[in-house]
């Protein structure tokens, strides 16, 4: 086995041997660098083969810098073959297979293996494994990324509608054919989805730190970046196999932006993995191909995620998720889920000249000459919508309020806000919260507390 990743530790090798069914003295992991003489190496091999007593076993032989040690590796392979043959000749009982694996670490530079070519022919088989151990990040398997754009990784899986399932249920008994039942098709579809499903929540959580680092905030609050991450992690599921309403919405918004990015890019985005595989230098930078792919994934996803976060946190709007007030949380999630009400496009944060995404996602404030903490979810959206509707209503003061109310509640935004403003339990609180934000968006306070609204 050749690899570019780090070699196995003793605990790693024991875990692999145990998973393969070899425990205790039936497995051994040695490094060529730990032996000073050929006799020491042969003695260790002999002791291991004798201890097996004819039972099946696993021997792992590791060596770093395979190119510089190619002669040593070839010599050791010969010694392993000979020692095994001589030892087994002295054992009278029937002998079961002994699995011997050489793990060779190769240099990460292009053309770095001019001499070492692996073990070709005979009983030996040569394979290259990019990473010997599973990544802690639990990232998608490379097979799941082939011929798929990054936006496809966030593709939501919508369940089939009941009318579609009914159409599938075809009874062919009259013609002597078998009956095709919808539930069987549904089960097979679900299994296929589970096999192909990539955890969008896990991708978002792994990109969260990088996305937060791209956000630029003029606020004097030093710990704001940390607080953002804490709020988002609170609303993202701890179990990466599960999804919450917030994680689904966040993944959907990122998915939309990635789709718009795909449409703008002249290169076929489904071939990004192949392009990365052909790129020179990524092994020196990251160590393994898998890590290089993750770095590329993060560089694509993080800018989109940072823009969504920056958009949602205007006027400290994210803090409203932590207030634990049902009406605010429900309204917050509903509004960010509606793209018509909370629009965010790829073009809004890219350069019209170069077409590149801006380096920093700016968190803006809608306060007049000052910053403030919003008390009503996405209050600047409501204010902008009201201003637009006022132009449609006209300038007749006697009919403006009645007409505005009618037009506002018939709009998509009004339909969302209506339950809050007509619920007698929260009506007054909702109105006062919005009025507080409205005053800050219209006036600059001269003295502290001047714009404070009391119920």
Automatic annotation (TrEMBL):
Name of this chain's protein: Uncharacterized protein
GO molecular function ontology, one term from the record: ATP hydrolysis activity
Organism: Paramuricea clavata (Red gorgonian)
InterPro entries in UniProt: RNF213
């Amino acid at each position: 086995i050749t690899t570019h990743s780090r070699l196995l530790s003793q605990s790693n090798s024991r875990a692999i041997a145990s998973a393969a069914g070899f425990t205790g003295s039936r497995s051994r992991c040695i490094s060529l660098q730990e032996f000073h003489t050929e006799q020491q190496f042969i003695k260790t091999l002999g002791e291991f083969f004798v201890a097996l007593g004819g039972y099946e076993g696993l021997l792992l032989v590791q060596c770093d810098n395979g190119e510089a040690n190619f002669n040593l590796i070839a010599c050791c392979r010969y010694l392993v073959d000979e020692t095994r043959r001589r030892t087994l000749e002295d054992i009278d009982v029937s002998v079961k297979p002994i699995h011997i694996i050489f793990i060779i670490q190769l240099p990460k530079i292009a053309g770095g293996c001019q001499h070492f070519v692996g073990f070709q022919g005979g009983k030996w088989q040569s394979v290259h494994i990019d990473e010997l151990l599973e990544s802690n990040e639990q990232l998608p398997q490379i097979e799941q990324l082939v011929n798929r754009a990054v936006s496809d990784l966030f593709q939501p899986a919508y369940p089939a509608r009941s009318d579609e399932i009914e159409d599938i249920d075809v009874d062919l008994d009259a013609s002597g054919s078998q009956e095709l039942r919808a539930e069987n098709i549904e089960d097979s579809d679900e299994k296929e989805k589970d096999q192909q499903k990539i955890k969008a929540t896990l991708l978002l959580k792994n990109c969260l730190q990088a996305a937060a680092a791209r956000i630029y905030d003029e606020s004097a609050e030093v710990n704001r970046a940390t607080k953002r991450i804490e709020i988002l992690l609170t609303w993202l599921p701890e179990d990466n196999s599960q999804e919450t309403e917030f994680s689904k919405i966040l993944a959907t918004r990122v998915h939309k932006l990635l789709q718009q990015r795909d449409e703008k890019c002249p290169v076929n985005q489904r071939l990004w993995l192949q392009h990365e595989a052909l790129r020179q230098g990524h092994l020196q930078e990251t160590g393994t191909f898998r890590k290089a792919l993750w770095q590329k994934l993060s560089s694509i996803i993080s800018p989109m995620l940072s823009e969504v976060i920056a958009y949602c946190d205007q006027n400290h709007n994210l803090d409203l998720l932590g207030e634990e007030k049902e009406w605010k949380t429900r309204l917050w999630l509903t509004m960010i889920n509606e793209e018509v009400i909370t629009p965010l496009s790829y073009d809004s944060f890219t350069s019209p000249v170069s077409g590149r995404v801006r380096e920093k996602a700016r968190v803006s404030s809608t306060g007049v000459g000052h910053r403030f903490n919003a008390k009503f979810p996405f209050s600047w959206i409501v204010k902008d919508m009201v201003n637009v509707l006022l132009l449609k209503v006209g300038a007749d003061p006697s009919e403006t309020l009645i007409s505005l109310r009618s037009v506002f509640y018939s709009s998509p935004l009004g339909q969302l806000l209506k339950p809050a403003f007509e619920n007698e339990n929260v009506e007054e609180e909702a109105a006062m919260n919005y009025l507080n934000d409205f005053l800050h968006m219209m006036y600059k306070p001269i003295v502290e507390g001047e714009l404070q609204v009391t119920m």
